[in-house]
TrEMBL record:
UniProt keywords, alphabetically: Secreted, Signal
Family in the record: Belongs to the NPC2 family.
Source species, domain of life: Eukaryota
Main location: secreted
Record-given protein name: MD-2-related lipid-recognition domain-containing protein
Signal peptide extent: 1-16
UniProt subcellular location: Secreted
Cellular component, GO, one term: extracellular region
InterPro entries xrefs: Ig_E-set (IPR014756), ML_dom (IPR003172)
Domain MD-2-related lipid-recognition: 21-147
Length: 152
């Protein structure tokens, strides 16, 4: 049993795919930089295909140029210039997914396990991921990515 778990977690780590990300226009580079984002499993990093009903591990590395005792985080579906909050991670406690506090220039990793509901629509979705200082929302880290959601 233990061996199986070790092997499975090794396979999971090995199949993490670096995904293509873009900057959010509203966040100046000197406020925060996001260096890399990874999804497991993910076949195509340009537009990861996520499966409904399956669990996906998402992680990203960010370096804030600010200090914060508490962070908030949220994922949005970007539609026609509007950010529609994703119900499962909306105004959430960011410190549950990364270690707090954060300090200027110190790289952090945020890890989140996403299970997509079976009722979500299928298709291609541009998303926005934000992490911000609870005490000062202008101090934020943000990236854009494209996901494809399918049934199988
Ligand atoms: C951090 O922010 C300060 C201004 O608040 C700026 O002068 C500095 O260049 C920034 N550092 C980085 C690494 O972006």
């Amino acid at each position: 049993m233990f061996k199986t778990i070790v092997i499975l977690s090794f396979l999971a780590a090995a199949s993490a795919t670096v995904i293509k990300i873009d900057k959010c226009e509203n966040v100046p580079e000197d406020v925060c930089t996001i260096t890399e984002s990874r999804i497991t499993p993910c076949v195509n990093g340009d537009e990861c295909r996520l499966k409904k009903g399956k669990e996906h591990a998402i992680s990203f590395d960010f370096t804030p140029n600010f200090s914060a005792d508490k962070l908030k985080t949220a994922v949005y579906y970007v539609n026609a210039g509007q950010d529609i909050p994703f119900a499962e991670l909306r105004d959430a406690d960011g410190c549950l997914y990364t270690s707090c506090p954060v300090s200027p220039g110190v790289s952090k990793q945020l890890n989140y396990k996403l299970r997509l509901g079976k009722k979500l629509p299928s298709g291609n979705f541009p998303i926005k991921w934000r992490v911000w200082n609870e005490a000062n929302p202008a101090q934020e880290c943000c990236f854009l990515a494209k996901l494809s959601i399918s049934r199988r």
